Every structure is written in C-alpha cells, then in structure tokens.
Automatic annotation (TrEMBL):
Species: Hymenobacter saemangeumensis
Signal peptide stretch: none
InterPro entries: CHAP_dom (IPR007921), Papain-like_cys_pep_sf (IPR038765)
Matching Gene3D superfamilies: endopeptidase domain like (from Nostoc punctiforme)
Pfam families: CHAP
Protein name: Peptidase C51 domain-containing protein
Sequence ranges assigned to domain Peptidase C51 in this UniProt record: 1-127
Length: 128
C-alpha cells in the first residue's frame, strides 16, 4: 500500500484505490491525470467511454478504469480496472477493496465480480 500511495502523492491513511491505479499505469509508462490519487479525477470528459447504461465510444475493454458513485459523497468514490466486460457482470481489479459490496476502505487488491449496473462510469487511458 505504501508504494501505491507514494506513486500518487497520497499520504498514509488516505483511500488508496486511485493510488493503486496510478501505480499500475506508471509501471507501463502511461500518463495519469493530475490528482490521480483521488478516484474522481480518473474520469475527465475527454477520457470517458461509458456512462451508466450507455457506451459512448465502444464497449469498455481490459485495462479501462471503472468508477463507482457514492451517494453519501455525492461523487465517484472508488476506482479500479476492467478485467472482463460482460453482458450482466463486470470482472474488475481494484485496490483498497475487500469482500462484499463496493468497498472503498478495504484491505487489499482483489479481482471482483460486479453487477454491470454498479458501474457508474468508465474511462480509457490506454492509447489505441
């Protein structure tokens, strides 16, 4: 976790899902957005390819970023990666998560099976 936090400039005790995504993309030499340690910053309009229920620029693919909306925050509060985009379910890889629900204060990096309806937004940071 410390390595992920350091890659995004986040401090110990802060949520680290965005830091995990930052670390992963930096490992393969890809650009990250300003403030990449915060989940909400992974979804600028120019990068969004899917918004709940509507593909805007083709279907999401492996490596795209998925965002989860939290009503109590009034914004995107968790980010991870698409592993496999299905008709009803999406397999994701997420840092700072755990078993059950959409957890933004978890204990590790996990592959999760999410209902597609749980996915709020998807952005693409991988050049075509």
């Amino acid at each position: 976790m410390e390595t992920y936090l350091k890659s995004s400039g986040n401090q110990r005790g802060q949520p680290w899902c965005g830091a995990f995504v930052t670390w992963c993309l930096k490992q393969v030499g890809l650009a990250v957005p300003p403030g990449s340690g915060a989940a909400r910053n992974w979804f600028p309009a120019a990068k969004v390819i899917y918004s709940r229920g509507m593909a805007l620029r083709g279907p999401p693919k492996q490596g795209d970023c998925v965002g989860f909306y939290y009503a109590n925050l009034g914004r995107i509060g968790h980010v991870g990666f698409v592993d496999r985009w299905g008709e009803d379910f999406v397999i994701t890889v997420e840092g700072n998560t755990g078993s059950g629900g959409i957890n933004r204060n978890g204990d590790g990096v996990y592959r999760m099976r999410r209902l597609r309806s749980q996915i709020t937004i998807v952005s693409s940071w991988i050049p075509e």
